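Exercise 7.
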Amino acid sequence: MMVKEYQKNFDFLDFMIVFLSIALKYLKLEFKINDSFMTIYFLFLCVFVLLKFVKYPVTKKNLLYLMFILLYCLIITYSTASVDFALSLLLVLIFYNKGYKQYLYYLFISSAICFIITIILSNVGILQSEVLTRKVDGVIVTRNSLGFQTVNGAFLHWFVILLLYYYLFGFKKYSFIILLAISWYIYLSTNTRTGFYCTILFMILAPMMNLGSGKLLKKSAKYLFIIFSIISFVFACKLGISNNALNELVSNRFVLWNNAINNHSIQLLVNHALDTYPIDNLYINFWQHYGIVAYFGLLLLYFFGMNKIKDKKLLITMFFFLMYCLFESNHYYYINYSFFILMYVLIVPNYQSDKKGGQK
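Solution. The predicted structure, written as tokens, is:
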């Protein structure tokens, strides 16, 4: 789909639904607004979906997937008091007959707008930033969060915007240079090493991977969640027992993972003792913090959902996103867009008519 096609299919109401869902989350996280605003918006979307979804066709198999995902969302919402999964499901139902690429286009535009505004407000002093220091080669380096909750937050948001840009438009010579320059600016401001390294790997390897047939990626896609889970536990058990160069490179993450695994028991649902513990890893966070029900539900979602995706370019972006999840627990609905994609391909009949992907 070319840029003109995204613009041709632009629907202001659909765009505002996506934009408000992201803007309200930004306002809650960065400006600390009351939860009631998001609750009211969530209830509005529930009514909106109920009025529209009854008109949509659905097969028995897709209905079974929908029931499973709905049950999973209810469990997660009940145990965590978070609407991230449920909101992803609502957005899938809103875009049920409109294609996932148009949603990703709205997501990219909305995320970029909120990202830029946050950094501008931080630079002019309206939005407070977290400021930390780190010793690098004997030199004290100042780390600025650029208005986000944590110093890692800027790259967490930027990496997803970069993935979406590549999927929708591809990398051209000048856009590659501009995106690399923005990444370098964020790195200089935040000194977020893992985010920057993952960004460079993605910008170099993704176009190369897109040149191939993608057969290996398509065959292994459904196992990626399991593979990265195993890698996470191996890193935690082997590299997290004592301090070492690799552990220092990733800001002590391996030791933190090891402590979470060894000092906290596995629970069926959320372990609230870990609510404020920094498990910067999606896989261990779901296993140790959100509980085995949440972990295995997510594993099944990735296993069956990734197997249905035939869009090579989309799979490439999701591969790098899951790789980044080794170092961040990316579960906000507007950051972890894979939740939307996986639910979409499982719920929407004949979604493959939307399979060609973004501009190469």
